[in-house]
Amino acid sequence: VPVPSHITEIDLVRAVTAGVAPTGDELPLGPSVNTLRECVDRWPESIYQWHDAPQRAQLDVLFRQLAFKDPNTGLYSQQRIDVDAGAALLGAGKTRADLRALVGEGFLGSVDYLFWDDEDPARVTLKVSHESFIRGWGHFRRLIDEQSRHFDEFLGVLRKCAAWVAGERGDDFLLEAGELRRLGDSGFAGRWANPAQREAWFRLLRLVRDGPQLAAFQPQLDGFLTRANQRLRDGELRKNRTRRGWFALGALTLLLVPSASFSVFIQAPVIDRAGLLFAAGNRANRAPLTPDYPGVGAASSTLESLLRAAELVDIARSGSSSRMAGLSQLLLDRFSWIGPVRDQDGFLKGVAAQAEPPVNGKLRLLLGTALWRSAGVAAGSELPPPVVNEDASCVPRDGESGASQAVPGRLFVASGRDGSTQQRAIFLPQAEGEGKSGVVLRSASFDPVNGQCLYGAIVLSIPVYLNPYVVFDAGLRYFLYTAYGENVEIASVTLHEIDWDRSESGVVRVLQSEVRTIVTSPEAVAAVIRAAGPGRAGV
User: Fold this and answer.
1) How far is CA 410 from CA 450, 478, 495, in A?
2) How far apart (Å, rounded) are the C-alpha atoms in residues 3 and 7?
3) Residue 434 carries which DSSP code?
4) What is the distance in angstroms between the CA of the first residue and the CA of the last residue of the chain?
5) What pLDDT does residue 24 have?
6) Per-residue pLDDT averaged across 356-379, rounded?
């Protein structure tokens, strides 16, 4: 395809929309659209949609075998499969030629999203060309995320089984009714009955830190599930007998004294449950949320109040606050065809629709912005610290504005675990030039083979009047910086998150950075200053 002399906005729209040019009054893409990321998502999606429904189902089965999500780190990883095994996934009698024909329609050849490795004729394999395809294509990523959720579900059941065996197989250690219902809704039993799925789960279990110990409980897992389901059935039978008794009593009472029965068994409990919902809403409205916090756990009281509000909403919805409330809910369900009963049910649902959103919304916001203490890092899972080059020299990456010669400064290079030739780095130019007015953090990449450093866009420029000290985490994905002194009203530490991306050519770039939280604690400021050291930047 000939390369145009210049790229227009219409060209970018064609790229993002998988080759379909805009028509009529459709506007070109805005400046906020990441065209590279959109292309990585939409092109394979358009190829996927070219296939008919049975072919898409076959592709889904195949893609689930080509990648997995590391249970320890959450990172996406590719895995190679034998083409004959891959053909068997398509159905009985399918051959490698059928597999080649399926993936050859867009995923091989014109765009090599997949790699057909036939260098060794004795073992021809298929794999993903690059992990960025897993992350970039939303449909592929969702397939692997679903597989990861299924594995986490299996891991939770296996841990429960281990506790049951350790507890001498007591019923107190069995799965609860709610857990069994969730497993039933998710289709866990069908997956567990599939020998291939079992083998895949126990193969992935080897990557979990306590996986070898948990694998020893495989023989007991079937008995554990059978006993838990039997206990659930026995409990349901008892509850049904009790429910029928209460229902008969309620029906008799309704026949004898309709008005009094309606007030006692339906209206009064509904009013009580509505009161719980109003109380939950009031708690949510009074809960204070701020953009900054004075330290770890400073929002504990707010969290406790919101959790209590969420509990009140759940109790009110389920009618579990008392036997009378439970009977009321049963009557609302059974007699909703009666006008007054239906009105009471509608009233309760209307109050719940008003009270629940502020409770859940504030709770999610608080958990995502406040500062909490972690459980600590497990032994052996720590990342090695970044390599710090105090006398580094970096040149600008192609397309960067500014000087074209090497710029001296400090370079922080993340330790590479994946064997990539380009390692992500943060470059701090010396005080001359752009860094004179403050601390400038630039994205960079470092090639350990030839020792070359290329710097890119500015991640953050911190004014000097904030008196900044900067500390990076081991993976260069988070950094802290201080703001204190006579020019700052309230001393604070700001936590930033960096979103990195690696292109198919191996070039690492910073996509964006954002503030996660602000801590207004003198102790936090002092801790960052100590960690940064006299050079004002450390790890």
Assistant:
1) 18, 18, 21
2) 9
3) G
4) 47
5) 45
6) 74
Name residue 92's beta-bridge partners: none
What is the amino acid identity at position 248? A
Task: Give the total residue count for the chain.
Answer: 539
Q: Are 496 and 510 in contact (CB under 8 A)?
A: no
Are residue 396 and residue 532 in the same domain, yes or no?
yes
State the CB neighbour count (10 A cutoff) for residue 357. 12
pTM, two decimal places: 0.41
What pLDDT does 178 receive? Answer: 86
Q: Answer yes or no: is pLDDT of 291 > 60.
A: yes
pLDDT digits (tens, 9 = 90+) for 31-43: 555 555 566 667 7
The pLDDT tens digits of the residues spanning 302-331 come to 778 878 888 888 887 777 777 777 777 777
Q: How confident is the model at residue 403 (pLDDT cuts 50, 70, 90)?
A: low
Whether residues 164 and 276 fall in one domain: no
Rounded to whole angstroms, the Cα distance separating 409 from 431 reads 8
| Cα distance between residue 151 and residue 286, in whole Å | 40
Q: Is residue 12 part of a domain?
A: no
DSSP label of 534 = T
Tell me which of 115, 136, 157 is where a domain ends: 136
Contact predicate 468/96, CB 8 Å: no
Residue 379 lies in a domain: no
Residue appearing with tokens 């204070």: 288
% of the chain exceeding 70 in pLDDT: 81
Alpha helices (H) in 297-411, listed in sequence order: 300-318, 323-334, 339-369
Distance from C-alpha of 128 to C-alpha of 108, rounded to nearest angstrom = 10
CA distance 33 to 26: 15
Q: Which residue range(s) make up the domain with 279?
A: 257-369
